[in-house]
């Protein structure tokens, strides 16, 4: 499974490490890019309505 991971604290790092060790593919995204991504998704949903 490929997981998009948003989080940079110690707990987030431990969770990401645990998931990676289980064989999951991990991608990270910065907080600013996550906000931009959420705005784009919101606009697409609005256009589809």
From TrEMBL:
SUPFAM superfamilies: NAD(P)-binding Rossmann-fold domains (SSF51735). This is Pyrroline-5-carboxylate reductase catalytic N-terminal domain-containing protein. It comes from Acinetobacter genomosp. 15BJ. The lineage of its organism: Bacteria, Pseudomonadati, Pseudomonadota, Gammaproteobacteria, Moraxellales.
């Amino acid at each position: 499974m490929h997981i998009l991971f948003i989080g940079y604290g110690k707990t987030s790092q431990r969770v990401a490490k645990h998931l990676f060790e289980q064989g999951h593919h991990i991608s990270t995204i910065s907080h600013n890019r996550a906000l931009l991504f959420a705005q784009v998704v919101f606009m697409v949903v609005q256009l589809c309505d």
